[in-house]
Amino acid sequence: MFWAIIIFFFAHWFLSLFFHTAFLHRYASHQMFSMGKITEKVFYFLTWLFQGSSFLIPRAYAVMHRMHHAYSDTEKDPHSPHFFKDVFQMMMKTRDIYNDFVRGIRLPDTQFIKNLPVWNAMDKFGDNLVVRIGWGVSYSLFYLYFIVFQDVSAWWLLLLPVHYLIGPVQGALVNWCGHKYGYQNFDNGDHSHNSSPLGILLMGELFQNNHHKFPDSINFAKRWFEFDFTYPILVLLASVGVIRFNRQKIS
Ligand SMILES: [Zn+2]
Ligand SMILES: [Zn+2]
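That is the input. Now the predicted structure with zinc ion docked in place:
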């Protein structure tokens, strides 16, 4: 029955990642496409549902991400790997800046606050400690059921921390690897790289070099051997009218 755990793991990984890259990154931060107010709420809710215990509040994410583009790999970049000894230190610093924005301790520069999706009630609920712990308990119970009743090895419990922190783990992989390892198609004046073929597991997010060159382009793949598999999903959603590509941002 270990396959149930594998399916659960990858379903959580890719569903969480899709809403991370589509809603938090391409929509909230870059506004590569538009959607109606109700659809926006549905995406917002699904982002919470799939990120669960590590739900990232869209407005805080978007402000940090816009800073990342404006100051890529300089000291003002909130998470450049070139200013930290290891990925954990980078994650801690990123978390501190994120928390400061969420709690209003740090106010974002006005150039970064245009058109942010805001749903205060959802933010408050998703950020509630009891709700976050509730998600963690749910993931744990799922694993424990298969270990206790289906004779699955307890080693699978080692995957649980990834579920607890799925949003930041995916963000840290992108920010660390995407600005350190791989190849460059363009000279962007920073350390952004494309990390193919590992990129396939991050749904296009690891084409950082392409993305920093064309931050408004919905398709992060730029060469024949690159494939951003979030892009065809967005094309499908646009073709059935769920979202609308902003015309100047299609490429
Ligand atoms: Zn980047
Ligand atoms: Zn971006």
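The first strand starts at residue 33 and ends at 34.
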